[in-house]
Design brief:
By secondary structure, the protein is mainly β. It is 0% helix and 61% strand.
Length: 109
Amino acid sequence: MDTSLDLIQCVNGIELAELEPKTAFLVWTWNSLYRVVVADGSEVLIQGGAFFPEPTPAHVDGSSAGRSVVKTGWIGVGLLMVFQVGGQRIVTTPIIAIATERRGMSVVH
């Protein structure tokens, strides 16, 4: 995915419950870039990484420091993003940046 930095706002973390449906944001990890679109609360469409070439329904559990404790509903820089797709739990590498997309922004793959 290619993005234009003047069209995004970088943040340290995102509280999913505070976002309106259809809000889109980008999550960069050590190994991947994900585009996340909020459906309702922690229910999202996720695209990116090695396994999600197309937007895929998922449930974001939250963020973890690498142990079993998860900060529910929060995605934070420096933490691991934890989400579920089709009943399978997925844990990313550490998040290095999060950026919210502005409305009308197009993302090129």
